[in-house]
Amino acid sequence: xxxxxxxxxxxxxxxxxxxxxxxxxxxxxxxxxxxxxxxxxxxxxxxxxxxxxxxxxxxxxxxxxxxxxxxxxxxxxxxxxxxxxxxxxxxxxxxxxxxxxxxxxxxxxxxxxxxxxxxxxxxxxxxxxxxxxxxxxxxxxxxxxxxxxxxxxxxxxxxxxxxxxxxxxxxxxxxxxxxxxxxxxxxxxxxxxxxxxxxxxxxxxxxxxxxxxxxxxxxxxxxxxxxxxxxxxxxxxxxxx
Length: 241
Fold this sequence. Notes:
Layout: H1 2-25, E1 39-49, E2 52-60, E3 71-72, E4 75-77, H2 85-97, E5 105-109, E6 113-114, E7 120-127, E8 141-148, E9 158-164, E10 170-180, E11 185-190, H3 191-205, H4 220-240
Parallel strand pairs: 1-7
Antiparallel strand pairs: 1-2, 1-4, 2-3, 2-8, 5-7, 6-7, 9-10, 10-11
Helix pairs in contact: 1-3
């Protein structure tokens, strides 16, 4: 039994170390930090459950003015006291689900996105303890759940939805429905949350999903950064017109 437990522990560490290596290769650091848009950050919390990489997500409280009841990552707008995007993500995660910043192993910042309020949203990826028990702030979060990361590569329930950005750009949006066995309910994951989850899964697993994506998988970071800069240019053009 002890030998089997040791082997299982080594395999878990191997999974995490491989993921960390691939994530660090895609770290954008502060490359986009000085773009003149209001800033926000989200934390993409990774953990191991049953030998699989999983993502922790939250459901926004129904009394919130913006996007009530929608699935998202812990996060929010930059505060004047935050020294960078990582600070913002960790502070918000603590406020929303009781995640202590010192327990998060921050790995990287990925290519940002732009939300419907034209905030520059930076995804900060970090590993959290497998045993983490969330304590949701009821003013902000109504539920917390975990999804296997591979679900964003091979989903059981997936559609694309048409959308138009505030700058007038049209496109297609990922939309996943995840049937959570723990909560015995379904969660709809879409929009910028789904966009970040998909890119994270591609970075780590390095395989093509079972649906179409907007990236050149042979030149993943270049295509992701080009896509973002095209979006940013369209936002800028709209603001100046």
